[in-house]
Design a protein that fits this description.
Low-confidence stretches: none
Distance between the termini: 35 Å
Helix content: 40-55%
Mean pLDDT: 97
Radius of gyration: 18 Å
Number of strands: 8
Number of helices: 13
Shape: globular
Structural class: alpha/beta
Length: 303
């Protein structure tokens, strides 16, 4: 079983490319995954929120896990987004993902049904105990409403194969409590930033890295920031972060992954459209993204 640090400091939450008919474009997904690894990422999350998980079927997800693992191999980690708001569905999906050789799974907090903290604990415990895969918790209350408390994260960290958390709450007090609390019980539990704009302040609190959206476009630069911080060059890390803040902000000017898919298509890396209820970026958003990209150095190989 890979540790959190072995999975990587910079992981990209990958979009799911679609063809002109709206079907998953598996060949383009493989090309994108390789390009992401070539431009600085240590791994990819397949069919997370950025990958439009609510509208990708289980069958499509499972093929994506297999296809992307087949082209990345040992060059990078493949983390399967297997979470759901049904514990049994998430458990079954995780068990299947394990059989196809992925390196870890990402488990989002159950959405809509609003479980208690005890319910959250039992949900993640049940999934983790059904698999040998490393399990990464995903706390994103802006989308799920319910948030994992620091106490619940600390409790879950006692389960050996729950090896980390993607923290996208944006609450630095909460994140500091998580990092301090899990650090008191184990040294190998990893905290990744789940928001690009939060990465640098979270590193200062003791986080390890980021599961990123912007790394589709600027992976080498985010890697540079992470590496600079890790060797104590905080001045340079802060400069790189500052240079990238406009992109971090504008990729979320409307719901992710709408701006990112527009940016990739505009730059010439075709990832197709979106599945309803998501719709393409409006003219105002397109103009914002084009202007931001005009000031960016793009690391992703295009072509």
């Amino acid at each position: 079983m890979k540790s959190g640090k072995e999975l990587g400091r910079l992981i990209t939450a990958m979009v799911t490319p679609f063809d002109n008919e709206g079907a998953v474009d598996y060949e383009q997904a493989k090309k994108l995954a390789v390009a992401i690894i070539d431009s600085g990422s240590d791994g990819v999350v397949v069919v997370g929120t950025t990958g439009e998980s609510p509208t990708v079927t289980w069958e499509e997800e499972h093929r994506l896990f297999r296809e992307i693992k087949s082209v990345i191999g040992e060059r990078g980690s493949v983390i399967a987004g297997t979470g759901a708001n049904s514990t049994e569905e998430a458990r079954e999906n995780t068990v299947r993902a394990e059989s196809w050789g992925v390196d870890a799974c990402l488990l989002v907090v159950p959405y809509y049904n609003k479980p208690t903290q005890e319910g959250l604990y039992q949900h993640f415990k049940t999934i983790a105990e059904s698999t040998k895969l490393p399990c990464i918790l995903y706390n994103v209350p802006s989308r799920t409403i319910t948030s994992l408390s620091a106490e619940t994260v600390i409790r879950l960290a006692k389960i050996p194969n729950i090896i980390g958390i993607k923290e996208a709450s944006g609450d630095m007090d909460h994140i500091a409590r998580v990092i301090r609390g899990v650090g008191e019980i184990r040294s190998d539990f990893v905290v990744w930033s789940g928001n690009d704009g939060d990465t640098l302040p979270m590193l200062a609190l003791g986080a390890y890295g980021v599961i990123s959206v912007a790394s589709h476009l600027v992976g080498k630069q985010i890697k540079e920031m992470l590496d600079a911080f890790s060797v104590g060059n905080t001045t340079h890390a802060a400069k790189v972060h500052g240079d990238l803040v406009p992109l971090f902000k504008d990729l979320f000017v409307i719901s992710n992954p709408v701006p990112l898919k527009y940016a990739l298509n505009y730059l010439g890396f075709n990832v197709g459209g979106l599945r309803l209820p998501l719709v393409p970026a409006d003219e105002k958003t397109q103009a914002i993204i084009r202007e931001t990209l005009r000031h960016c150095k793009i690391d992703l190989p295009i072509g």
